[in-house]
Structures are given as C-alpha cells and as structure tokens.
Design a protein that fits this description.
It contains 14 helices and 13 strands. The chain is α+β, with helices and mostly antiparallel strands and 395 residues long. The protein folds into two domains: 21-84 and 188-389, Beta-lactamase (3-Layer(aba) Sandwich), CATH 3.40.710; 98-183, no CATH class. Mean pLDDT is 92; it is low at 1-16.
C-alpha cells in the first residue's frame, strides 16, 4: 500500500497541470461543491476548524484543511475509535483466542452481573448496560476499572434490545483483549494496527495522544428548543446520555486523551482514518481472513430498532452498514452511498466510512461541539452525501 499523499489542490501545484492517477477519477465540480459546503459552515462560525480526506485505490488521494486547521492538526475523533477496537478483535477472532460467543464472565469475572453477555453483544451494542459509568480516577488503572466493573448492573437482558453503548461495552472489550494478549490494549492496537498500517497520524492513549497537536474542542450553536424537538423526534425531550457537550469538552485535557478511552478516545488526522478504511476495503497486508472481514464490514449481526432513530441498527461485528432501506443518511453515511457502505462516525460530527462499490473511503474531522445536534445531523448528512458524489459508482 502506498504512503499517504497530501493533495490539497486539484492540479499539480508546480506545473498547473491536471491531476493524474486515482485523483483524476474524482469529479472536480463535485469536489468543489464538497469544499464549498464545508466552507459555508466555517464562514457561519459553526466550524472553527475542520479537515477531510478521501482514499482511493489503497491510498489517500485528496486532503483539505478548513478554518484554522493545518496538515499537522489532529482531532479528538470519539467513536471513530470503535473501528480500531473492532479491527483488533477481528484479528483475535481469526486466531481463535476470542470467539463471537465468548462470554464476558469467562475473561472478566469482576463484571459479575454480566451473565449471558457475549463478545457479540458487546460489538453490537446489545449487552444491556449502555449507561454503565466509568471515569476518572478509576479509568486510569486496570485495578480501578475492575472495581467499577464490579459495580455495574444490567439494565435489560443481553440481546433483547439495541441501545448504543457509547463507552461501556468497549471498556469490557479492551479488558478481554488484555486478558488474551497479556498486555495493555493500547499497545495491542498500536502493534497490530497503527504501526503495520502506517497510521502515523492516529493514536490511542499514551504520550502520543496526550502531546499531539490536537484542535481545541469548542462549543457552537444553541440547543434545539422543545418545538423543534417535537417536530423532528415527536417528543419535546431527547436524552443524549453521556455524549453531552460537557463530556466531550473534557477531551481537551491531555490527561484524558492519555487514557485512551477504547470506545472514543483516539486522536487522528483525517488522512489516517481514510487510510484505515482503505485497508478495511482491500486488506493488502492480509491482516484478516475474508470471513472475519465480511463479518465486520458486510454482514448485519443486529437489526434491532435503534430507539433514537427509529430504524434498524444495521450493526456488523463492530461497525454500521448503510443498508438498502433508504436510511443510510440516518446511519451517518449520506444519501448516495451504496447499500454496502460501512463505517462508524464519532460524536461532534466526525465522519468515517468506505464504499466497496466505488472503492472510496471518506473521513471528516472537526473541533466544533455543536449544541444544536439536529443541525449537526443535517450537516453530517449533507457533507457525507456530497463526498459520495465525488466518485459515483461506475455504470
């Protein structure tokens, strides 16, 4: 796989000639439209900084910075992190050190209440403990995490319903990884994925994440009022759970980034995310078997209804599948991707997906913590849709 190229111009900057190679397949008018849509948010003060990257043919062929972002800027990418944890688990599934049906209590006996919870439940957000809390100081040590696991209780039987586990399930996944690997989960992710894939701009925990040049998260906009909530959701109140602006802003702290929260603590540039998804599309290094890769990127393991969106969750073993029911935009991938597109977005408007029909991957990062989550959702749909139109499926 080729190295990442920073191509922020649609023409050769030294000669003015038209681009060649994979980037030449991108529609320049659609690319301009994508840039303009993002710039409109910047000009309106809704995006103080943002960054995008497009991957194609195993490489990153286009990047662009907006606002105060530079090519060296990293972002807190929140639940985009879940793809890293999933891809690590897929390798362990191939090696048979973990099984989809592995019960949590076999490896994490401190989580005594987790009777019947399996790895499959953790990866598909059907474990039954979506709001189990874990924060400082207990999250700083393995011993502290086990103390908290012992306090957790299931809110409903595993497998009974889908409800997004923003961080809780992935803390347990991380512990299961540590047990079978015999080392820190952050080291496992780095040595199994970040280093071999050449993802130099992506970090999960440790000094690299704490000391990286990370765009400061800032709040923008105003929370939607009861009337708008009623119009959109049919109710005047919406519970955001633990994914609140106040919680997200805590990731401005180097100490919080140092933890490496397994469900949402990675920092990255957009190019590294787009490159990760190119590897998930093509797997040139042979890191996963075709069967396990399909389970993670092409097969639905949970079609229970997402209570927030009112549509099937379409969860693979760790990611989200766009699907053919017309709801790909509600799943964060815009209106124009193919049903085979897969990905996992992050809080505050981070976008990450790949489409096997075109071979394109797309990543968008921003430091704006939008209080108007309806506006954020509409912006995500608009940006993702315009991105997919840059390289439409071949006729």
């Amino acid at each position: 796989m080729a190295t990442v190229r920073d191509m922020t111009s649609d023409a050769n900057p030294s000669t003015g000639e038209a681009p060649t190679g994979p980037v030449a397949r991108l529609d320049p008018d659609m690319l301009t439209g994508l840039h303009e849509r993002i710039q409109r948010e910047v000009d309106a003060g809704r995006l103080p900084t943002a960054q995008l990257a497009i991957g194609l043919d195993g490489d990153v062929v286009h990047t662009r910075d907006f606002g105060s972002s530079t090519p060296g800027t990293h972002y807190s990418v929140f639940s985009v992190t879940k793809a890293l944890m999933a891809a690590t688990v897929w390798q362990l599934l191939d090696e048979r050190t973990l099984e989809v049906g592995t019960e949590v209590r076999e490896l994490v006996p401190s989580f005594a209440a987790a009777e019947g919870v399996t790895l499959r439940h953790l990866l598909t957000h059907t474990g039954g403990f979506p709001y189990a809390p874990l924060g400082p100081p207990r999250w700083n040590t393995r011993e502290g995490r086990h103390e908290q696991f012992a306090r957790w209780r299931l809110q409903y039987p595993p497998g009974e319903r889908f409800e997004y586990h923003a961080t809780s399930a992935h803390w347990v996944i991380a512990e299961m990884v540590e047990v079978v690997e015999g080392r820190d989960y952050r080291d496992v992710v780095r040595e199994r994925l970040l280093e071999p894939l050449g993802l130099d701009g992506m970090h999960l925990g440790g000094a690299d994440a704490a000391d990286a040049e990370v765009a400061e998260l800032v709040t923008v906009g105003e929370a939607p009022g009861p009337a708008e909530l009623q119009e959109v959701f049919g109710t005047s109140e919406v519970d955001l759970g633990e994914v609140t602006p106040e919680v997200l802003l805590a990731f401005n702290s180097p100490d919080v980034r140092r933890v490496g929260v397994p469900g949402g603590g990675a920092v990255s540039d957009a190019a590294s995310i787009a490159l990760l998804y190119q590897h998930l599309l093509h797997d040139p290094l042979g890191l996963w078997s075709p069967e396990v890769l399909a389970a993670g990127t092409a097969e639905v393991y949970c079609d229970l209804v997402d209570p927030l969106r009112g549509i099937p969750a379409n969860r693979t073993l760790g990611l989200v599948l766009a699907g053919d029911d017309g709801h790909s935009a509600l799943r964060g991938m815009g209106h124009r991707v193919s049903p085979r597109a897969f990905g996992h977005n992050g809080a505050a408007g981070q976008i990450a997906w790949a489409d096997p029909e075109t071979g394109m991957s797309f990543a968008f990062c921003t430091s704006a913590v939008e209080r108007d989550f309806i506006h954020e959702a509409r912006r995500t749909a608009a940006i993702a849709t315009r991105a997919s139109e840059v390289l439409p499926p071949a006729n």
